[in-house]
Amino acid sequence: MPKKPTADDARLILELYNLRREPELRKARQWWLTTFWPKDADDFMKVAMDFGSQENNWLRQVGGYWGIATSFVLNGILSEKLFFEPAFCGELYFMFAKVRPFLKELREKAKNPDLFLMSEKAIMGSKIGRAQFAKVEPRVAMMRQQRS
Predict the structure, then answer these.
(1) 19-61: per-residue pLDDT in tens?
(2) Which of 9, 34, 125, 146 would bridge with 5, disulfide CB 3.0–4.6 Å?
(3) How far is it, in rounded angstroms, from Cα 19 to Cα 9?
(4) Residue 66 near residue 92, CB atoms below 8 Å
(5) Concatenated DSSP letters for 57-110?
(6) Of all residues in the chain, what percent are helix, strand and coil, respectively (each to 5)?
(7) Is 13:69 a contact under the CB 8 Å cutoff?
(8) Planar angle of CA 42, 43, 49, nearest 5 degrees
(9) 58-72 pLDDT, tens per residue?
(10) Distance from C-alpha of 71 to C-alpha of 118, rounded to nearest angstrom
(11) Inter-residue contact 142 to 93 (CB < 8 Å)
(12) What is d(CA 101, CA 2) in angstroms, rounded to the nearest whole number?
């Protein structure tokens, strides 16, 4: 996965950042970060199966965005060093930390072994990603505990 960052990598990071500013994606990201706190796989599946709801749209939109972005890293199109900077993908760590505790069960219930797979492979397959995620995951767990 490692490659030396280039000017093209920087342009792609800026383009990905710019896409995050799109109004509906901004609302979706805000919902994921502040409102959506699934307690378990069933809680997640309620939203995932509520097709046509705003929350379902937001769930898929944010998941799709990060799936595409991580695919760039996994396929060597984008420098992992630039991508895994917390200023760019701290949100990815946060989102993944919310579902990781019940990811296996979630994949089983959704009958989708690839659910969050790109994000998982990118984060866990990168020394930089793992190190940053290790800082975020305990904070998310603490926040989840405080919400219970």
Answers:
(1) 999 999 999 999 999 999 999 999 999 999 999 999 999 999 9
(2) 9
(3) 15
(4) yes
(5) HHHHHHHHHHHHHHHHHHTTSS-HHHHT-HHHHHHHHHHHHHHGGGHHHHHHHH
(6) 75, 0, 25
(7) no
(8) 75
(9) 999 999 999 999 999
(10) 6
(11) no
(12) 28
Q: Assess whether pLDDT exceeds 60 at residue 1.
A: no
Q: Count CB-CB contacts under 10 A for residue 58.
A: 21
Identify which of 24, 7, 10 has the alpha carbon closest to the alpha carbon of residue 83: 10
DSSP 3-18: ----HHHHHHHHHHHH
Say if residues 31 and 55 touch (Cβ distance below 8 Å).
yes
Show the CA angle centred on residue 53, arms to residues 50 and 55, nearest 5°.
Answer: 90
R_g of the chain computed on alpha carbons: 15
Pick the closest to residue 70 from 28, 109, 3, 118 (CA basis): 118
Domains of the chain: which residue ranges?
Answer: 7-147
